[in-house]
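sorry for the late reply, my laptop died twice this morning and i had to redo everyting from scratch. anyway the thing you sent over, i finally got around to it. pasting the sequence first so we're on the same page, its 192 residues, then the predicted structure underneath. double check i copied it right bc i was rushing
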Amino acid sequence: MKDSTHLVLASASPRRSDLLRGLGLRFAVEPADVDETVGADERPDELVARLSAAKASLVASRHPTSLVIAADTTVVVDDEIINKPADEAENRSFISRLAGREHHVYTGHALRLGTASESVVVRTSVYFRSLTSDEVSRYAATGEGADKAGGYAIQGRGAALVERIDGCYSNVVGLSLPTVVMAAARLGVRLV
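ok and here's the structure:
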C-alpha cells in the first residue's frame, strides 16, 4: 500500500479541506465546475453519487497519477432535496422546516486513481431541537448557513440547533472521513 501518492481535493469547500488537514494530509485543491441541476425524479443518493463522480472524473483527467477525492452533499426533509439557500429569507425557511424534526444528510464520495475508482454514498440522520422564530431569524442573520446544504453548519453555530445525530458526524460537515480512508485503502493508498 502506498503512502506517497499525490492527493487532489476536487472541492472548493473549506470545510472539506479542514477535515482532510485534520488527518495530517497534504493535498492540492482543484474545484470541479459541474452542472449541479437535480435531474427529474432523481433520488438524493443518485444525485450526490452522480455529482461526486462527475467532479472526480473531471479533475482526474488533469491529474491521472494522483488520488482525486470528490464529494457532493445535500440535505433531504420530507423527501425534498434542499441545497444551499439563495438568500437569508430562504435560509430562515430552511431552518424553520428542520426545527424540531429529523432530516437526512447525503454525501456522495468519489475517489479516482488512474482508471480505478471508488464511489460511496453515506447518509446521516440529524435531529434539530425545537426552535423559536427568534432563534431561527438570529441564526439565519449570521450568514453561516448561506453556502451550505440545508442552510446550517453543524461544525459552527449550527451545532446549537442540533439535538442529536445518527451516523457519521464528518459526513454532515461534508466528507465522511472513515469512508474516504477506507475507499482510498481499496485503491491501494494509505491515508492514515
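The chain has a mean pLDDT of 95.
thats about all i looked at so far, will dig more tmrw
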